[in-house]
Write a structure and sequence with these properties.
By secondary structure, the chain is of the alpha+beta class. The chain contains 17 helices and 19 strands.
Length: 528
Amino acid sequence: MNRYFMSMLTLMFAVLVVGVMGKDAIAQTRGGELVFAVSAEPPNYDCHRNSSFAFVHSVRPHYSTLLKFDAPNYPAVTGDLAESWTISEDGLTYTFKLHDGVQFHDGSTLTSADVKASYDRIINPQEGIVSLRQGAYSDIVSVEAPDDLTVVMKLKAPNSAMISLLASPWNCIYSAAKLEENPRYPETEILGTGAFVPVEHEAGSHWVGKRFDGYFQEGKPYLDSYRAIYMRSTAARVNALQAGEVLAEFRGHTPANRDKLVDALGDKVNVYEQPWACVLNISLNVEKEPFDDPRVRRALSLAVDRWNGAEALSKIAFVRRVGGVLRPGYDLATPDEELESLPGFSRDVEAAREEARRLLAEAGQSDLKFTFTNRNISVPYEAVGVFLVDQWRQIGVDAVNDPLPTSEYLAKLRGGNAEAGLDFVCDFMDEPNLQLLKYISTDNSSINYGQYTDRYLDELFEKQIRARTKEDRIAILRQFEQHVMEQAYNVPTFWWQRIIVNWKQVNGWHMSPSHHLNQDLTDVWLSE
């Protein structure tokens, strides 16, 4: 009876644990090294001045941020160093309470002074310090540290996106003491409070981090270590995945490489897919005739069969979805049925092309010829460029696709020397404050290469930032998008599709619409 009683008690306890903790929690194991492939490597170690996914995948596990996106519940935001936060009723004061006892890798204790120093560096960088996201936080007028565990940010005006902006993976928190000694130390030295401490970076080969035993989240990380293997060749990355030499690649694959891996590995891998927060745009330089004429610009947009094009291109490149200025599937984006009413998005492409020919004739440009500046990356840039050139031939336009190395391509667009080009918008999250920067006047946006001034778009951009309700913001965004498509200075073509193929041993990683998110590896674990 005692044995039976003890067996039943053990069984009941196990059932209770599963019910409370969930199956995933029971299955989690501690240990092992996650080996994954990365197609590039960081030029330096400073979060605040970097923008490449290669930096995030290699370096982000060493750092904590004030907030971060809740990986399984994107776009919800959760605390990282912040235990909790409150926002004043007028939307001008944000107060954060930090976790107590957080340690840097050198054993020193993190306080609010470190958060303040890091954000001061982002918002008001000293001479010689590069802060790529300084403009995103221009509404913050002060960062205060009233006590060791409290941070107070004060804004000059309400900002509907501020919490999401503060969850940026680029806003690593540095040591205030180290910054005081050398404001540029993060460029060459890593000292964070993240789940992993740096071990080794061998340029051109690999990056290694190991578990930080003093990490403030008890029981984490689960991994002993991680190893990022640098592989520039797509074929090499795919072959390494197929052979099991690496277990993951976190940027994305083409449909063909996805199929190759699935055919070879079957149920040994997990496949994740969703629209990517990246889109390719037709950018037209209004300082180059005849693109100063809105009839010509609109005609080029009307000629593109986006809906059938997306279907065809999705078979050879990682573009798949048709969308407006915001990512398809994002809750602020325009639904397909509304999108179809905008210029260039009708499913009746023959009627649209007839209107395009009429506009070109009216503008005296029936024999239009121009050079289309592109990036010499086959997928997706050259594939989409070739498609667009063919679409324009349908209305009598002779465009020449001109793929250039990335440095030349960017220099030509940024310098205003391109007649027209295939531009891109690619951000770490869905957020109009970021995505719409591509469309506002050039003197207000360093990433708009159309060389135009449109104060109506500038006004709407500012209004949507200040909107206090989601409904008000959506109404303003629809006005913005309508005007963008009518003027056609810079119009979306196809949104990317993110495709990830990882071995099933990799658990606790969550797919997102950005290859910059969910890469701190805190919750990742390996099964046998």
